[in-house]
Amino acid sequence: MAFIGRERELAVLNRMYRTNGFQMLVLYGRRRIGKTTLLNEFARDKDPIFYTGIESKDDENLRELGNAVFSHFSNGTGAVQFRSYSDLLAYMTACVKASDQAERHLIILDEYPYLAENAPELASVLQREIDHEWSRLNIMLILCGSSITFMEEEVLGEKSPLYGRRTGQMDLLPFDYLTSARFVPDYTEEEKAVVYGITGGVPKYLAVLDPARTLKENIEDNFFSTAGYFYEEPKNLLRQEFRDISLYIAILNAIGNGSTQVGEISGKTGFDTSKVSQALRKLEAVRVIEREIPILNEKKKKLWQYVLRDGMFRFWFRFVQGGTAAIERGYGAQYARNMVFPHLHEYMGPVFEKICQEYTFRIGMEGHFGVMLTRVGKWRGNDPVKRCPADIDVVGINENEKTAVIGECKFKTEHFGKEEYETLLDRARLVAPYRVERYLVFALSGVTQWVKDQAEGDGRIEIISMKQLYTPV
């Protein structure tokens, strides 16, 4: 498959590579996010020392990295065994000094945590070599890792020996909905949205889908078959992060089925709140869940909600978890057709809101709505007039000018009608003191003629089609 996306990241990497002198980039992100793929694409036309660490309790990483380094500098002839990382780095320094000083040396240590966890001295040895030698040499060093906590604390953290040495850092995130759509170019806009909803924009998950097959075939084969890529994926990922995954599975199942507060999750799982709170923090750290904080109500912690951040996890715990008995007996396709596909529009509601928020921010940053938006999110709180809970799917604000745009999202087969329209206009008062400059209507199936007539007579109303959502600026 052709390399897709990451244009900005590649531009940063190449700019650093073209900058003379020492450069050190720290690259990290959750598993399956495409770190190694990005590094391979970046290094494709270069001659790097590229080593990927492995989980090993002995000196295998030292031995294999040493072989890679010696092979690089000796043009593949002979072999040597280094006694320590100190000796290995000193050898690298000597080789760089002996080379043409204009030559750029690229060193990529992928899965760096695997090297460092079994060699606690490595960070200090690297720090010493950087300070005394590499800072004056034409070297670009990239440290890459999937353990976000390790990379943030043991590489970027103030207590790390490497603190202050980096010249750049990159936290690799999932693709947005527009880039995700490039993996399935011939799908309809509705199907592209669903693809984003079941993968969360994670590059590996997008690459698993076969664009030559239908969306439903891809879902059936990959989620609802014991041989499918996604059938065991959540458990496989959790096992890479945690020793005992039973607590985490229970928590994710509770969140996936609507429990959003610690107390609710504790009651649903049967685990005490302190244990649940600790597990939630760990799941946040590996970016499986997140706390959804409503815009303009950030200080009201009672309104915060835990949600599944990862789209694949969200789909799996909503649909696959409850169908394992049927799937394991070979009835996965029947289960999907009867218990999943009829509910896809309902499932896509929160996903569609996120897509519309991304669109609003992207267009708003260009000043398209007559106001430059600085933040976009979902508003949730209490309506003081009607004395009931209320929400606004899309709220974009300009904090300096106290102006806003608000929007309603409907991923349904029914048209967006008069009731939804009037509700949207009425809720403008909930974002006071912000003044609403534009009302946005996002509707999968379009709007009624009545709504069209209202929009034609009111320049503040903007109806945004699925085609518009998927048209790059």
Q: Descriptors for this entry?
A:
alpha/beta, five-stranded parallel β-sheet, about 475 residues, five-stranded mixed β-sheet, 22 helices, about 15% strand
Give a verbal description of the structure.
The protein has helices spanning 7-18, 35-43, 60-73, 85-98, 112-117, 122-132, 148-155, 177-181, 189-199, 203-208, 215-223, 233-241, 246-256, 262-269, 273-285, 311-320, 324-328, 332-340, 344-364, 418-426, 449-457, 466-469; strands at 23-28, 49-52, 105-110, 139-145, 168-171, 289-292, 305-308, 375-383, 388-398, 403-410, 435-443, 461-464. Helices cover 45% and strands 16% of the residues. β11 (435-443), α21 and β12 (461-464) form a beta-alpha-beta unit. It has a five-stranded parallel sheet with strand order 2-3-4-1-5. The longest helix has 21 residues, at 344-364. The chain is built from 22 helices and twelve strands. The model has no long low-confidence stretch (mean pLDDT 95). α9 crosses α16 and α13 (246-256) packs across α14 (262-269). The two termini are 26 Å apart. It is an alpha/beta fold and 473 residues long.
